[in-house]
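From the shared-data thread, chain only:
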Amino acid sequence: MYRIPRFGWLLAVLVAALTVAVACGGNSPTTPAKGTITIAGFKFSEGSVLAELYGQALQHDGYTVNFKLNLGSREVVGPAIKSKQVDLYIGYAATDLEYYNNAAGEASGDVTATTAKLNSRLQPLGLQALTPSAAVDQNAFAVTKATSDKYNLKKLSDVAAVGGQLVLGAGPECPQRPFCQPGLERVYGIHFKSFKALDTDGPLTRAALKNNDIQVGLVFSSDADLQSLGLVVLQDDKHLENADNVVPIVRTPVATSEVKKVLNAVSAGLTTIDLVTLNSQVELQHMDPDVVTKTYLTQHNYFS
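Structure, as tokens:
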């Protein structure tokens, strides 16, 4: 039997090891791991969309991201981040402010002021809100394209001149809610022909808009079906609604300059129309949130 000399055997082992290392090199990440971040998502489809959107951007930058999607409501997610079970969640400026201040009524339609007040509440908890996005998920008022064209309606202030010809439809609580009919009267001077009690952002409101039983209906600004139904959301140009802009909320020890740079870059490009489109793909086309968000990030050059 032929024996490999001791030196030759060692050389063979080294060559084999080098061959394996080179072969496996294609699977190694191009960016070294930078640490692990756990991101939570609220228990509705938009919560998963936003968690995936920001989480995948962190992954691409070299972080290991643990996703806890559909974790629960803010009453579950809030304690989870305060107890360090999660490091990050994507919230909404006004709603989070009113959660952390125990409904003290500090939120307003000014997103800068609202976020500043939110941070004053978060700082003692070791948390911080980053730069808010332009994307919002809040109460909104919509009309059909036909109504928009007929009366040249683009923003809520346009409605004041023709409100007496229009019927407002929303949930039965709208005439008493400060951000519904009373707010439209107080802030915009809109006095409708009448009010029709329907549902809150539901199928009855959509059917009434379609049938022209109402001309203005209460919706949520990031609803998945707004585009498919051809509804025009009127701009809240006088900021009646509190500023529920999308905003990352992160534990301060995790909020390094690089983490903030990655998250703020996503926020800087995200619009309400983008959010409606992503929600539509998930809710109406039944696509997975991780798939639609990866496509969005690729198309918008976050992965370049």
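Confidence is low (pLDDT under 50) at residues 1-30.
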